[in-house]
Amino acid sequence: MDDVLLPLAEHVRSHVSFERVFVVPLTGVVPPPGCESYEDLLASATGAWDYPPLDEEAPVGMCYTSGTTGRPKGVVYSHRSLVLHTLGSALPDALGLSQRDVVCPVVPMFHVNAWGIPFGATLLGCKQVFPGPHLDPASLLDLFQAEEVTVTAGVPTIWLGVLEALRRELDRWKLKLRTMVVGGSAAPEAMIRAYDQLGLHVLHAWGMTEMSPLGTVSRLKSTLQDLPEDQQYAYRAKQGLPAPLVEVRAVGERGEVPWDGQTMGELQVRGPWVAGSYYGGEDADRWTPDGWFRTGDVVTLDPEGYVKIVDRTKDLIKSGGEWISSVDLENALMGHPAVKEAAVVAIPHPKWGERPLAVVVLREGHRASPEELREFLVSRFAKWWLPDAFVFADEIPRPPRGSSRRPNCGSSTGTGSWA
Hints:
- The protein is an alpha/beta fold.
- It has 3 domains: 3-43, no CATH class; 59-242, Rossmann fold; 317-392, GMP Synthetase, Chain A, domain 3 (2-Layer Sandwich), CATH 3.30.300.
- The chain is built from 11 helices and 21 strands.
- It has helices at residues 6-12, 38-43, 79-89, 112-115, 117-124, 137-147, 156-168, 189-197, 229-236, 326-333, 370-378, and strands at 21-23, 35-37, 59-64, 74-78, 102-105, 127-128, 151-154, 179-182, 202-207, 214-217, 241-242, 247-252, 255-256, 265-270, 293-301, 307-312, 317-319, 322-324, 339-349, 353-362, 389-392.
- Strand 8, helix 8 and strand 9 form a beta-alpha-beta unit.
- Helix 3 (79-89) packs across helix 5 and helix 6 (137-147) crosses helix 7.
- The longest helix has 13 residues, at 156-168.
C-alpha cells in the first residue's frame, strides 16, 4: 500500500489478518513494525520465475461495486476473464495501447483494477506512471509533463479540473498526451470540444464492475469521418460501440427495442468478461435466464450500433407520464460557457408527479442567471423538459471515489465511469 494509507490501515489492522504488508514510500512516513518495503521487494528479484499451475477459471481478484443502488456486492474475476479483458481492451479500436506509450491511470486499483489499464500496460510493456496522493490539476499536469505521459484515464471530475487549470495557464505545460480516456460518468460534449481546441483528444468509454469493466468505447467509425462537425461530436459524446466480444441489447416493456437511436430500453450485456453472478449469489435476478446482465442503465441504440445512456432507471424523471433524461439536461447545461458542472434531479409536483430541478456550479469568475440558463436550453429541448428551477451551489456532492452521482463505469449502476 502507499504510505499515505498507513493511518487508515491501522484502524482495521486488528480486525483482519494480513499475511504480508508491503509499503510504497511516497511521503516519508515511517512504516510500523511488521511492514516491509516495496522497494526492497523489487531489489530482491532475481529474474528467475516459474509459473505456478493455475486453472484459468480460478479466482484471481475481487472488486466491490459502489453500492449506489444498495449494499456493495463482490464481483470475482477469474484468470481467464482478466486475460480476455486485457487483450480486448488493448486493441486499437478499444483503448489502443502500445508498447511506446507512457500510461498514467488517474484511477485507484480498488475502482475495478484501475479499469484494467495496468494489466494492459504490463502485457504490452508500456512504461507506467502512478499519481499517488497528488490528484490536484497542477500536480497531475506537472507529472504528465515530467514523465511524458501519452495515455491517461480518469473520471470527468478530474478532467474538468485539469481543463480549468489549462485554460488559466495555457503556456505552462507542454504535454505529449495523445489520449485522455474518460469514464465513471458521462463525458459532456462541451468538455470533449474544449479539449480538442487545446489539441488534446478525449476518448469516451463506459463499463461496470461486473464487466471487468470495459463495455463500450466511443471511437468514430471511418464511415462517419466526413460527417459535419456537430454530428461527429454527438457520436463521440455517446458511450460508444461495444468492445470486442461484448454483446449489447436494450429491452423495454414489450421486449427488445429497435436500434433507431430514439426508442429507450434497459441496457443488457453479456460476454466472456461479464460476471455471471455476484459473490455469494446476491441479487441473482440481475441476470436473465438466458445469461444477460441487467445493467439498470436506460439507453438508446442507433443504426450504427452506438450506445447512448439516457439515464439510470432510478434517475429518469417522469413528468406527466413522459420521461425526461436528467443526463441530457446536465450535459447540455455544461455546454454553457459559465457552467462548470450541473446535476438535474426530480422534485415532487402536485400535478405532474415529478419535475426537473437543476443544480449548477459556475466557473470561477463567471455569472449566469436562471433565466439565461433556461434560454440556453430552449432551442435544445421541448418546453416541458426545461427545469422548473435552477439552484446554484459551490460543488456537486459525490461518492468517495470522485465520480459523479451517476457512475457509468466501474460501478454496480453503470460510468459512465466507465470507461
